[in-house]
Recover the amino acids of this structure.
């Protein structure tokens, strides 16, 4: 089997397989009611019900090139996708949670969605503007963009803290890819990890006390698939880091918000060695 969609329970320290498939699937989102997951694969989006796990395709209209940067609105009524069908490069759209015709949000490309503000009003994305990739926000209905990072290094993977005060992201602005956070108004920026690993895709838990992320081995460039990585947890109270699970994965494993609403579980994808 190529892909294994799984959940990890922080209380037991155990991973549970929900679905195995020969398809390449990626980037699970957990619905706000905890009943289903959304993943992508082969340019499509799929819904996976927890009580009867199987891949059920979601109607995304003309968008047939959906990548792994997708998510669900805080109120559970909308999907956001990143798709290049019409624009040639990734563009952000929203559509109803049950499927339908996408509505374009970003005019500029490439734009890759990663976070939705808790109040539902703003989207955070990784976007290439003026020759560099940085953290950019935009109103959910489109409009003027706000860039929160400068051109120092590559910045990617923004995700909001549950109070909406911070946006977490990863950046190489310090030399190696580490975790950072910036105030949602861009006023303060802080580096949050500094070690010998290559750290990507931070996801604050629903309680805001921990941050899940993927750690590549030292020297890895970018965020490739099919690597030996670790899923790690940064505890903000104790300022400590622990390894939860070593997996064969990386790109596609936890690119987007993947926490269960109870904050005790998260979803991920691991891949088979070929």
């Amino acid at each position: 089997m190529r892909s294994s969609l799984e959940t990890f329970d922080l209380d037991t320290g155990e991973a549970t397989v929900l679905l195995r498939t020969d398809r390449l699937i990626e980037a699970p989102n957990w619905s706000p009611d905890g009943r289903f997951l959304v993943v992508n694969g082969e340019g499509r989006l799929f819904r996976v019900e927890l009580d009867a796990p199987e891949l059920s395709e979601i109607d995304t209209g003309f968008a047939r090139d959906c990548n792994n940067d997708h998510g669900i609105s805080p109120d559970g009524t909308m999907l956001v996708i990143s798709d290049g069908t019409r624009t040639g490069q990734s563009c952000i759209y929203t559509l109803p949670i049950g499927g339908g015709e996408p509505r374009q949000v970003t005019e500029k490309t490439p734009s890759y969605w990663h976070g939705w503000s808790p109040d539902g009003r703003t989207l955070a994305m990784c976007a290439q503007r003026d020759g560099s990739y940085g953290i950019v926000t935009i109103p959910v209905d489109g409009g003027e963009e706000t860039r929160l990072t400068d051109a120092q290094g590559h910045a990617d993977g923004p995700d909001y803290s549950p109070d909406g005060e911070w946006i977490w992201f990863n950046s190489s602005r310090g030399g190696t890819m580490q975790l950072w956070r910036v105030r949602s108004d861009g006023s303060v920026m802080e580096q949050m990890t500094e070690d010998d690993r290559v750290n990507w895709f931070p996801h604050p838990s629903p309680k805001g006390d921990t941050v899940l992320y993927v750690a590549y081995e030292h020297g890895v460039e970018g965020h490739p698939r099919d690597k030996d990585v670790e899923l790690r947890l940064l505890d903000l109270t104790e300022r400590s880091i622990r390894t939860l699970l070593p997996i064969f994965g990386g790109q596609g494993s936890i690119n987007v918000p993947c926490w269960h609403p109870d904050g005790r579980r998260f979803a991920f994808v691991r891949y088979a060695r070929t």
Observations:
- The two ends are 10 Å apart (CA to CA).
- The mean pLDDT is 97.
- The chain is about 0% helix and 50% strand.
- The domain at 3-271 is CATH 2.120.10.30 (Neuraminidase).
